[in-house]
């Protein structure tokens, strides 16, 4: 070894000065993040180790020593994998969890594999570093805003729902916050540093066998994704540790979607057995029981981002937020309580699906059902077909763009007679960013007033007013609600509460109008999910939300009511889940239902809450989602029914899921034409 090697020559500071600047900035940033309790002091150690290894690799002489020259570029790419993993973890949600050592290590390896493939493809270390860091940098910023706006990271399903995202994208505030500025500076500094440190001079143009083997190893790593159970590991821990982009787990989920969606544990034969047992039980319990002669109009309202934040913890506001909704608890013709949703902050259509189908997405491979399970279906049995077969006119109404969530295709296959979207509506009134609830409810009243005398309506309505993002005003918005003692500290939360107060006013006027309507009418109202608001609000109102599974479940509670303008049995403080609401409503007004809905209604007596995040039994005991199927045969039965209903469409037992005329006897969509209705005024 050259004895003068260790001497610092005149080019050292020119080449490595940026390294010291980056290391100094990183130390200051980590100290700031530790003081802010965003990371803990243990985070320093990985950076120290990574930095020391990087420096040592650059001091090792590469000339004249076989194989040693490869250490520099290997360490450089590993370091880039480490930096981008830390950047993505922290910028995604403002949290970095060192306890996820297994996940963190795998993410670093997969990030590094991307850099290796870029390196082999470009034959340039510098180009690989710049391109790779740019890709992860942009991905991090996008994921950061997605997290802010809906409270969950980017997932594979977002690729298919990109049109839905574009429909609301302009209504958000994209002002860079401290995470984008500080972490963006970190990534830029290290990108420039690694670029200036070079490395192309000892790798470019060389047909290095070791380099080729590294590329092969990277490809094999990605090829193993569908088999390593990485996506399953993420899903199993997502409730408590949903704070990283989980780059590899998303790729794993994407790869796994290429295979069969029908799980190996599913049994179509078991579904027939369950159907026969259910039919026998119904015949035994209801041999000659006739349904009520009352055939009401049915209005189902799924209210966008409608939650009762009081379930999270105690806080006081300057005025009552939802005085009308609260008053329904004493209404003699109302069933009130809370339903558990399977989602938080986004993916509205999954709650809509659970309501209409009575299935639970707990048992469906993690996805957006409307986007991935209706392509090959011709006729889908649901609440819509049950009411169609009782001579109802079925109407879908949503005051937003028809491109969202594949709804036009799904509505046609469910059998809706009419569907209205924003493009069909005239003189739309907006409140802040979206069509107002008052306008939306008036569309429902107009359809009721213009129906035929002997026509019975089922209207499925999805509101839009309270949709995120929760910044900005205009269109009549006025902040009326503030949190006592915390005025101005949680701006998104106070905006949301003010908006919800306006929704409550409009809802009260709507129900009052129906009280005076001259036909029996029933309304089932529920929120699709809670909103994703200021992260500081959640830590203030209930610090245990991220620590205890039972407390976390509070973020999935949404208020609901079933109300009629005639006598029905009053019930209060009901705990249920969205998948049970349709049979509960049919039972409340004594209307016929499918054998499946009857089975689900009976199941609810033992398991009143089943959602994607877990279940509660009749005694109030909580069970995590992953334990249910293996522990309880009746939950396994529900799983088989859900798969047969929605996933295994070729073998769906239509006679069980439909009422009256079987859906398989109906003409396919190609043989019939959906009724073209006049646009709503």
Automatic annotation (TrEMBL):
<keyword id="KW-0472">Membrane</keyword>
<feature type="transmembrane region" description="Helical">
    <location>
        <begin position="179"/>
        <end position="198"/>
    </location>
</feature>
<dbReference type="InterPro" id="IPR050448">
    <property type="entry name" value="OpgB/LTA_synthase_biosynth"/>
</dbReference>
<feature type="transmembrane region" description="Helical">
    <location>
        <begin position="210"/>
        <end position="230"/>
    </location>
</feature>
<keyword id="KW-0812">Transmembrane</keyword>
<protein>
    <submittedName>
        <fullName>LTA synthase family protein</fullName>
    </submittedName>
</protein>
<feature type="transmembrane region" description="Helical">
    <location>
        <begin position="73"/>
        <end position="96"/>
    </location>
</feature>
<dbReference type="InterPro" id="IPR017850">
    <property type="entry name" value="Alkaline_phosphatase_core_sf"/>
</dbReference>
<dbReference type="InterPro" id="IPR000917">
    <property type="entry name" value="Sulfatase_N"/>
</dbReference>
<feature type="compositionally biased region" description="Polar residues">
    <location>
        <begin position="669"/>
        <end position="681"/>
    </location>
</feature>
<feature type="transmembrane region" description="Helical">
    <location>
        <begin position="102"/>
        <end position="121"/>
    </location>
</feature>
<feature type="domain" description="Sulfatase N-terminal">
    <location>
        <begin position="296"/>
        <end position="590"/>
    </location>
</feature>
<feature type="transmembrane region" description="Helical">
    <location>
        <begin position="44"/>
        <end position="61"/>
    </location>
</feature>
<keyword id="KW-1003">Cell membrane</keyword>
<comment type="pathway">
    <text>Cell wall biogenesis; lipoteichoic acid biosynthesis.</text>
</comment>
<feature type="transmembrane region" description="Helical">
    <location>
        <begin position="12"/>
        <end position="32"/>
    </location>
</feature>
<feature type="region of interest" description="Disordered">
    <location>
        <begin position="661"/>
        <end position="681"/>
    </location>
</feature>
<keyword id="KW-1133">Transmembrane helix</keyword>
<feature type="transmembrane region" description="Helical">
    <location>
        <begin position="128"/>
        <end position="147"/>
    </location>
</feature>
<dbReference type="Pfam" id="PF00884">
    <property type="entry name" value="Sulfatase"/>
</dbReference>
<dbReference type="GO" id="GO:0005886">
    <property type="term" value="C:plasma membrane"/>
</dbReference>
């Amino acid at each position: 070894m050259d004895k003068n090697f260790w001497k610092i020559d005149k080019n050292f500071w020119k080449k490595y000065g940026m390294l010291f600047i980056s290391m100094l900035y990183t130390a200051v940033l980590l100290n700031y993040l530790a003081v802010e309790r965003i990371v803990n002091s243990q985070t320093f150690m990985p950076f120290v180790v990574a930095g020391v290894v990087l420096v040592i690799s650059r001091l090792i002489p590469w000339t004249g020593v076989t194989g040693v020259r490869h250490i520099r570029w290997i360490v450089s790419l590993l370091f880039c994998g480490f930096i981008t993993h830390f950047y993505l973890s922290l910028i995604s949600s403002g949290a970095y969890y060192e306890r996820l050592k297994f996940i963190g290590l795998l993410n670093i390896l997969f990030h590094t594999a991307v850099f290796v493939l870029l390196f082999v493809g470009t034959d340039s270390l510098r180009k690989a570093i710049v391109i790779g860091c740019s890709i992860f940098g942009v991905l991090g910023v996008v994921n950061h805003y997605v997290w802010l706006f809906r409270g969950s990271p980017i997932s594979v399903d977002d690729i298919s729902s990109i049109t839905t995202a574009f429909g609301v994208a302009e209504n958000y505030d994209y002002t860079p916050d401290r995470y984008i500025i500080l972490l963006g500076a970190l990534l830029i500094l290290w990108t420039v540093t690694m670029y200036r440190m070079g490395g192309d001079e000892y790798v470019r143009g060389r047909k290095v066998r070791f380099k080729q083997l590294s590329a092969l190893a990277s490809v094999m790593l990605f090829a193993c994704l569908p088999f390593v159970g990485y996506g399953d590991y993420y899903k199993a821990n997502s409730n408590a540790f949903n704070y990283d982009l989980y780059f590899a787990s998303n790729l794993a989920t994407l790869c796994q979607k290429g295979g069969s969606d029908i799980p190996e544990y599913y049994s179509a034969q078991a579904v027939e057995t369950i159907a026969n047992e259910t039919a026998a039980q119904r015949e035994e319990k209801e041999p000659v029981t006739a349904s009520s002669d009352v055939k009401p109009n049915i209005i189902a309202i799924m209210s966008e981002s409608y939650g009762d934040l009081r379930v999270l913890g105690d806080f006081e506001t300057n005025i009552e937020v939802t005085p009308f909704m609260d008053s329904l608890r004493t209404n003699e013709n109302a069933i009130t309580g809370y339903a558990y949703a399977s989602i938080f902050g986004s993916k509205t259509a999954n709650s809509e699906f659970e309501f209409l189908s009575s299935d639970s997405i707990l048992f469906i491979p993690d996805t957006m059902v409307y986007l991935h399970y209706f392509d090959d279906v011709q006729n889908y049995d649901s609440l819509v077909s049950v009411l169609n077969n009782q001579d109802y006119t079925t109407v879908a109404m949503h005051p937003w763009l028809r491109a969202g969530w594949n709804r036009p295709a799904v509505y046609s296959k469910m059998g809706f007679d009419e569907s209205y979207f924003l493009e069909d509506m005239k003189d739309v009134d907006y409140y802040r960013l979206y069509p107002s609830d008052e306008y939306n409810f008036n569309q429902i009243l107009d359809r009721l007033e213009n129906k035929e005398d002997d026509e019975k309506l089922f209207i499925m309505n999805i509101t839009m007013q309270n949709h995120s993002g929760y910044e900005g005003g205009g269109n009549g918005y006025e902040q009326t609600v503030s949190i006592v003692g915390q005025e101005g500290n949680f701006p998104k939360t106070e905006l949301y509460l003010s908006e919800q107060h306006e929704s409550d006013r409009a809802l009260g006027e709507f129900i009052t109008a129906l009280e005076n309507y001259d036909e029996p009418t029933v309304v089932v109202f529920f929120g699709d999910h809670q909103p994703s608001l200021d992260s500081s609000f959640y830590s203030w109102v209930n610090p245990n939300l991220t620590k205890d599974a039972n407390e976390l479940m509070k973020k999935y509670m949404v208020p609901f009511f079933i109300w009629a303008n005639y006598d029905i049995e009053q019930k209060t403080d009901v705990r249920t889940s969205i998948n049970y609401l349709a049979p509960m409503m049919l039972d409340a007004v004594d209307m016929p239902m499918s054998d499946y809905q009857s089975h689900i209604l009976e199941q609810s007596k033992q398991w009143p809450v089943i959602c994607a995040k877990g279940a509660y039994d009749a005694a109030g005991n909580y069970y995590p989602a992953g334990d249910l199927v293996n522990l309880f045969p009746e939950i396994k039965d529900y799983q088989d029914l859900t798969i047969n209903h929605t996933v295994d469409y070729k073998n769906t037992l239509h006679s069980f899921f439909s009422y009256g005329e079987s859906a398989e006897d109906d003409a396919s969509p190609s043989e019939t034409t959906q009724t073209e209705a006049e646009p709503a005024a």
